[in-house]
């Protein structure tokens, strides 16, 4: 059976993927940028807009990382404002389960779901470092083996709060015309090692029952958390073979939680570069990469692996002969990319071998090893490639990250989406008013449960 493709749009945080030197690169704090981006995505009939979140400005060599200075407004504030200027687009926010509390988060998402008419979604993430924890009252962090346990029970608690109201708990008073609640509406109590709370939840049942739940972790614990409790997983596996392996691994975990393969969508992040021809797109992609990775940025990336100050190195020269420092990582604080190298010395050795074999400078190497361009080509090539990935079960769709915001999504909407529609693999209009229905997901209450958590 031919699968339907799901598409979403990611408004990136302050980062090195945006080509800031391009005149089309807009503000990442002014509301007009978010509004234009969301309305382009909705014009393309995308499922949802996705916002990342950062709870602390990152540092490198003891200074604020130069690509992270601007920051971004609060996620809920942006999404609530976008609910007023869109009609169908889902609104997905990344909210941390390590440094927030279930009552606040459940209340905010229930409110957003009401304000948007059933379009709210939560990307549940954890935080791994004390650096971020310094911004919060606890002043610390959870060990890695506890952060997913807290996330699991956090989501369980939030679910209990959403479920504390039933659709029939809010009644119209015929005398006053006001709505009144049944006496036991919103009553809850949750008691475990992480949360000891009870009371009355003061937001009636959201239109979707519960917001759509996303998860973005790639570890074993992250995959299990997604299989047990999420509606979609935000994957970073962008190649066909890696995508197929990840897809089968995660989908294969669902049955033990009483879930169908269709109950969890797998949506990798993907960048794109369009040209009139494949050759033109390749040339453009090369230029984009050079704009994304300046000499200074290349040195910063190399320092994140080497864990040393390399500011005295020439980015157009060879890699350092000295090995990375394996001690405590103090060069790049708050950057998740530091943790993605399981064997730092092996990675450094592989980078040296590649640089020597291909005669690459530091900057040229970093351009190669940090490449994030998944789809490069003409509109026809990109439409065909995306469809192949989905039909071959490497993904259920993609979350697109343009290198120019807010208007960089426009060419994809205008030139690629019509080709997917002609193939009959992408909608020509929204099927429903709620995000859950547009994603083709069953209500959580119809799915299996684990430890009392709807999954």
How would you describe this structure to a colleague?
The protein has two domains: 6-163 and 196-276 and 373-454, TIM Barrel (Alpha-Beta Barrel); 294-369, no CATH class. Helix 3 links the parallel strand 5 (90-96) and strand 6 (120-125). The chain is globular, with a radius of gyration of 23 Å. With 455 residues, it is α/β, with parallel strands linked by helices. Helix content is 36%, strand content 16%. The relative contact order is 0.16. It has 15 helices and 19 strands. The strands form six sheets. It has an eight-stranded parallel beta barrel, surrounded by five helices. Strands 4-3-15 form a three-stranded antiparallel sheet. The chain has a two-stranded antiparallel sheet with strand order 7-8. Residues 449-455 have low confidence and may be disordered. It starts with 5 loop residues before the first strand and ends with a strand. Helix 2 (75-83) packs parallel to helix 3, helix 3 packs across helix 5 and helix 9 packs across helix 11 (362-369). Its EC number is 1.14.-.-. It is an enzyme of class 1 (oxidoreductase). It comes from Branchiibius cervicis. GO terms for molecular function: monooxygenase activity. Belongs to the NtaA/SnaA/DszA monooxygenase family.
